[in-house]
Each structure stands twice: as structure tokens, then as C-alpha cells.
User: Which sequence fits this backbone?
């Protein structure tokens, strides 16, 4: 990176460190933080949408849709989430390949599951075996995002379902008295009012989502945990210009600090948001705010 | 049927190193799936039960520390709780493993700590202590003022007041949330062998074997539902057990005032 970094073995102290921390591999490490942030940025709204759909379905008056919504909310109870992560990554991949196989190769007559193999025709492979490396990586990331969204959508669905029920019944009755249809009352009365009840649960979920990002490592994405292990391991002078001992503990200290500050900052931001949302609401906190300003 | 009994004899205690050394090969039967994954549950139960019991006492101490007016007691408790609740358990496992690894080089005292049975247990113990302490602290803050005034009026003070009035009420109020914590912790034990701690001689927990089968057969639709079934059963046992304790804690209350256990969905830590 810097001009004086051509021969690291002669360097010492901070100059050495400045060169060491700007190697190409470290750049990969820093980029992986962006991967984590990208995952959060994509997953959070997707999971929210899944959750909203799930909660709306669970309130439906049509029984099969209601069962679907309730079932979706219920899948996350009782079973460890890591099991879901490990399960969905393979299951989604095989599901996609199976569907493409049915569409692209209708005249394939061999069974897909042969003993310990899962065989689909060449053109149904995802991603195609001829595609470049970045396509494989993006596909892996996409699967991870979808897995996160499904699991967290179920959590969010539970929170939103509770929030919808917390909206005072009288509000909906008033809407009906004004002659609003079921749909109008839902969108104009229920949804705007439910957020204040949902935010505490959702902010808790956001913390949990932040704290679950290291699980990307289990899903085979080259995330910060992967790089911290990779970079921290003992480096021999024969293979690198920057030999060092086992520094993994320092890298993980750094990750620990990263997560602690991230959750702390989120906590403060959530408190601010909550304050903003309670303004003018018919809740204890909203009433307290009104009195404080009055 | 007899083949299955043979499998159970061979593999029921495989996760703790008793029985057949080699894991089954080739075509896996359903029986092998059930036996081996069930065998792994021994580890999950060991981690959860030990960490919960040890953590319960430490959590009480931490909660009292956090509620204390003394800065020297409050600050460390607050920091401890923040440290363990603010960071991912997954990173904590990695951190602890590498910490024990470097401590091992300085002193032979730490030799055993890199094994999952000790090292991971310490992490789980500290983690559940922090989460439970936060629950207990919240309950401690909501002990009714009248209860304490009544105790004062009867001349019950100091340790006796804590042991006979404050602590039982705290437990009573905290119990529904603590039940959830117990369930989450039980689920969190599946992380142990997926973080840094190695499964020595393929002695792993239930998820370790489930993912072993999924890797070998490339079919996630059999091992993971089996795992789910085991965990749902275990969760029901926890709910039953904690429900019984909840009933005992609330036995003096009138029937309709007794709080019911309400389970929230499990959350990753």
C-alpha cells in the first residue's frame, strides 16, 4: 500500500504495523465488514416484509391462509435456529435446482436422489458450473440472505402479530362505525398504529440480527469470522512477508469490540426512534411525553 | 428390528466415547439417524443443565450487584452483563477458545480448558449468567414496595428479609422470562461444536451428528427434522419442569392472579 512497504522485514513498530494492516488480505478482511453490513441492509427489510406477510396471514379470515401464517410463526418455536440455518441453506439450494430441473429437463428419467448424490441435469445446476467465481459467491450470499430472511421473518411475524392485537379494539370499531371496509380499516387504522407496539420487539430483533451475523460463517460465506481466523493464524516466514505467531485472539478481540459498539449504537438509536414514535400516542410513554412538554 | 437394537447398543453412547468407534458407513438407516442424533443430545443436556444450575447462582449475585448503590459493585456487574449480552455467543466461543489456547502455553493449569466439555461450558455459564442476571435485575426492580414495607413493619431486615421476602418474590416475578432463557440456552448449546471447539474423535452434539448425516447423504430432509423432534421434546420437558416450579412459587396467590407461563419464540444470542 505505502511506498516504504517494499521490504517489510526491515521495518519495525508502527511502520511495520501500518504495512501489515494494509496488505491485500487485510483489505479482504475490511471488505467482509461491508458484506456483513450488506447482509443486514438487505435482510432487515426483507425479514420485515416476510414478518408482515406472516402476521397478516395469521389474522386472515380464510382458514388455510391463517394456518399457513400461524404455522410459519410457530416453526421457530422449540427448534434451535442454527439448525434452521444449516437446513435452509441446503434445502433452498436443492429446491431451486429441483424446480429448474423440472422445467429445463422434462425428459430426464433418472431419479434425482441416487444414494448419497443429488443429481440434476447440467443446465439446471445453480450456478452453472461454467460461471465465474463471483457468481458462485453471489449465489452463496443470496442463499444466506434468504435463509436469514425466512428465519427472522418468522420472529418478526410473531412480534407484528402481537402488535396488531395490541392496537385498542375501539380503534377498529370506530373505523367500522365510519363505514370503512375491512381492508381500509386494516391499512388506515391498524397498520399505522401498530408500529409503536411493534418497535420494542423489533428493536430487540434487530439486536439479535446483528448478533447472528457471524453465523454467515457457517453458511459458507467469507465473512469477518472467516477472515479473522484466516489472518490471525500463525504465519510462517516462508510463505509471507509478515510472519507472526498465533494472533487469532487479537482479531477476535477486535470483532468483540466491533459487535459491542454496534449493538450499543443501535440501542441508543432505537431509544431515539421509540421516543419519536410514542409522540402523540395513547400510551403511558406518550402521555408522559405530553406532560413533559406541557 | 434386531439390527436396530444392535445399532442402539453400538451408538447410543457414541457421543461420549462408549461403543463403536467408527461412525456408520454407506447407506444410513433411519435407526442410525435416530440413535446417533439422540446420542448427541447427551452433550446438549449436559451443557444446558450444568450451565443453568451454576449460572442461576451467579446471576443472582450479578443482579444484586447491578441493583446495588455501591459503584464498586454496580459498575463491574453492569459491564459484565453488557459484555456478554452485547456480543454474539458465537464470537464469545471463538474468543474463549483462542484465549484458552494461548493461556495453555503459559501454564499447564489450562490444559483441560480447550476441550469443549470445560471451555465451552465456562462460556455458556458466563453467558447465561449475564442474560439471567438482566432478567433477575428487572424482577428485583419490580418487587412490590408494600412487600418490603411489610417486612420492615415485622422487623425482618438484612439477610433474613432478602432470603424470605425479596428473593422469593424476585424469582416469582422473573420465572416466566427465566423459563424462556432456559429454552434459549438449551438451543444455544448447539453452537458449541460449530464454533471453535473441536469435536474430538467425532464426539459431538446432536446438531453435529445431524449435519454429519446431511453432509454425507446430501439430504437435509431427514436428519434435521429428527433433530427438531428431539429438541421439541426437550423443550416440552423444560416447559413442564419450569411450569411445575412456577406453580410452586405462586402457590400462595389466589387462583386467578397466578401468572401463566407464556412462551415467546426463541431468539438467537
Assistant:
Amino acid at each position: 500500500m505505502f511506498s516504504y512497504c517494499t521490504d517489510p522485514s526491515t521495518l519495525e513498530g508502527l511502520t511495520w504495523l501500518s504495512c501489515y494492516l494494509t496488505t491485500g488480505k487485510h483489505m479482504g478482511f475490511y471488505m467482509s465488514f461491508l458484506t456483513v453490513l450488506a447482509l443486514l441492509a438487505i435482510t432487515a427489510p426483507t425479514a420485515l416484509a416476510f414478518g408482515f406477510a406472516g402476521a397478516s396471514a395469521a389474522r386472515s379470515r380464510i382458514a388455510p391462509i391463517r394456518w399457513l401464517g400461524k404455522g410459519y410463526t410457530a416453526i421457530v418455536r422449540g427448534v434451535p435456529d442454527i439448525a434452521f440455518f444449516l437446513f435452509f441453506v441446503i434445502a433452498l439450494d436443492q429446491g431451486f435446482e429441483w424446480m429448474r430441473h423440472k422445467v429445463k429437463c422434462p425428459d430426464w428419467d433418472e431419479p434425482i436422489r441416487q444414494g448419497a448424490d443429488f443429481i440434476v441435469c447440467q443446465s439446471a445446476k445453480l450456478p452453472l458450473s461454467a460461471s465465474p467465481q463471483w457468481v458462485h459467491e453471489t449465489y452463496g450470499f443470496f442463499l444466506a440472505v434468504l435463509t436469514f430472511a425466512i428465519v427472522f421473518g418468522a420472529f418478526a411475524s410473531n412480534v407484528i402479530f402481537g402488535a396488531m392485537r395490541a392496537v385498542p379494539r375501539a380503534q377498529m370499531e370506530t373505523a367500522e362505525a365510519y363505514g370503512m371496509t375491512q381492508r381500509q380499516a386494516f391499512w388506515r387504522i391498524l397498520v399505522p398504529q401498530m408500529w409503536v407496539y411493534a418497535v420494542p420487539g423489533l428493536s430487540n430483533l434487530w439486536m439479535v440480527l446483528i448478533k447472528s451475523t457471524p453465523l454467515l460463517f457457517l453458511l459458507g460465506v467469507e465473512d469477518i469470522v472467516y477472515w479473522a481466523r484466516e489472518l490471525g493464524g500463525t504465519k510462517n516466514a516462508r510463505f509471507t512477508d509478515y510472519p507472526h505467531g498465533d494472533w487469532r485472539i487479537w482479531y477476535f478481540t477486535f470483532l468483540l469490540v466491533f459487535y459491542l459498539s454496534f449493538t450499543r449504537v443501535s440501542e441508543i438509536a432505537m431509544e431515539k426512534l421509540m421516543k419519536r414514535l410514542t409522540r402523540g400516542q395513547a400510551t403511558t410513554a406518550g402521555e408522559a411525553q405530553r406532560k413533559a412538554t406541557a | 428390528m434386531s439390527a436396530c437394537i444392535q445399532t442402539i447398543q453400538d451408538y447410543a453412547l457414541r457421543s461420549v466415547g462408549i461403543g463403536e468407534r467408527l461412525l456408520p458407513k454407506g447407506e444410513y438407516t433411519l435407526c442410525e439417524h435416530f440413535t446417533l442424533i439422540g446420542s448427541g443430545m447427551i452433550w446438549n443436556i449436559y451443557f444446558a443443565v450444568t450451565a443453568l444450575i451454576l449460572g442461576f447462582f451467579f446471576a443472582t449475585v450479578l443482579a444484586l450487584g447491578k441493583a446495588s448503590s455501591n459503584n464498586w459493585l454496580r459498575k463491574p456487574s453492569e459491564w459484565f452483563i453488557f459484555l456478554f449480552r452485547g456480543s454474539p455467543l458465537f464470537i464469545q466461543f471463538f474468543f474463549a477458545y483462542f484465549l484458552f489456547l494461548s493461556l495453555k502455553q503459559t501454564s499447564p493449569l489450562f490444559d483441560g480448558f480447550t476441550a469443549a466439555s470445560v471451555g465451552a461450558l465456562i462460556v455458556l455459564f458466563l453467558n447465561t449468567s449475564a442474560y439471567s442476571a438482566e432478567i433477575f435485575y428487572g424482577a428485583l426492580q419490580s418487587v412490590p414496595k408494600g412487600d418490603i414495607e411489610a417486612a420492615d413493619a415485622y422487623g425482618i431486615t438484612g439477610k433474613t428479609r432478602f432470603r424470605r421476602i425479596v428473593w422469593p418474590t424476585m424469582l416469582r416475578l422473573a420465572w416466566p422470562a427465566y423459563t424462556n432463557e432456559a429454552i434459549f440456552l438449551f438451543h444455544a448449546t448447539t453452537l458449541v461444536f460449530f464454533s471453535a471447539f473441536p469435536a474430538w474423535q467425532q464426539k459431538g452434539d446432536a446438531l453435529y451428528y445431524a449435519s454429519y448425516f446431511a453432509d454425507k447423504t446430501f439430504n437435509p430432509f431427514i436428519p434435521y427434522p429428527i433433530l427438531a423432534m428431539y429438541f421439541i421434546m426437550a423443550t416440552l420437558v423444560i416447559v413442564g419442569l419450569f411450569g411445575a416450579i412456577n406453580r410452586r412459587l405462586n402457590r400462595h396467590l389466589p387462583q386467578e392472579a397466578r401468572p401463566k407461563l407464556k412462551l415467546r419464540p426463541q431468539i438467537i444470542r
Summary: The first strand of chain A starts at residue 113 and ends at 114.
